[in-house]
Amino acid sequence: MVAAVKITSATFLTSAPTLDACPPAALPEFAFIGRSNVGKSSLINLLTLRRNLAKVSETPGKTQLINFFSINDRWALVDLPGYGFAKVSKNQRADFNEAVADYLEARESLRHTFVLIDSRLPPQKIDVAFLEWLAETDADFSLVFTKADKQSSSKTQANVARFKREVIDTLPRMADVFVSSAETKLGRNEILGHIGRLLD
């Protein structure tokens, strides 16, 4: 088992409104995306142990740009806008955010995408639609179930098992699953260990 990546530096690089505006693809990139208000900023801050690296907002959908952070000058963490208030188009192209769809489909330096799911909820249509679209692309991805501290461990396990049964097992590709909590630091080492394995 690969040890978790030790993060010694985390610095904001830039924000981009489109794929063409993204910085040169100099580092392997690990992207994070999820439905609005899923706890993405909190998870990014947990992983980097920087309280305010990603802005935590009470307003869902606050992240509108593709935000890049340099980690250890070795890889980039990419904070993608959430997909909470739109739909997937009939032709199965991600219509929730054209820039994000372009990034996930065409960014050559994208190594892996972590899709965040609220562990407290039954499968949401927008999460299912996004995952079905993502599984049809070449993007490599995992699922991170967030906010596990907000309920009992047994409830989280039951919800994750249901999501696996009803959603993940129906996808054309398998995906690794992580459970996290920004409050208790649950899942941090496992996610960083996964990143370390992919870097190696």
What keyword list fits this structure?
22% strand, alpha/beta, 5 helices, seven-stranded mixed β-sheet, Rossmann fold, 28% helix
Q: What's the SSE blueprint?
A:
Blueprint: E1 10-16, E2 29-34, H1 40-48, E3 66-71, E4 75-79, H2 98-106, E5 110-118, H3 125-135, E6 141-146, H4 153-166, E7 176-179, H5 188-199
Parallel strand pairs: 2-4, 2-5, 5-6, 6-7
Antiparallel strand pairs: 1-3, 3-4
Summarize the structure.
By secondary structure, the chain is an alpha/beta fold. It contains 5 helices and 7 strands; from the N terminus they run ββαββαβαβαβα.
Please give the domain count.
Answer: 1
What is the CATH architecture descriptor?
3-Layer(aba) Sandwich
Q: What structural class do helix, strand and pairing data support?
A: alpha/beta
Radius of gyration: 16 Å
Strand portion: 15-25%
Largest sheet: 7 strands, mixed
End-to-end gap: 12 Å
**Strand tally:** 7
CATH class term: Alpha Beta
Helicity, as a percent range: 25-40%
Count every helix, treating DSSP H or I runs of 4 or more residues as helices.
5
Query: If strands are numbered along the chain, what order do they take across the biggest sheet?
Result: 1-3-4-2-5-6-7
The name CATH uses for the topology is: Rossmann fold
- Under CATH, the homologous superfamily reads P-loop containing nucleotide triphosphate hydrolases
Poorly predicted tracts of residues: 58-62, 85-95
Model description:
By secondary structure, the chain is of the alpha/beta class. The protein has a single domain (10-199), classed as P-loop containing nucleotide triphosphate hydrolases (Rossmann fold, 3-Layer(aba) Sandwich), CATH 3.40.50.300. It has helices at residues 40-48, 98-106, 125-135, 153-166, 188-199; strands spanning 10-16, 29-34, 66-71, 75-79, 110-118, 141-146, 176-179.
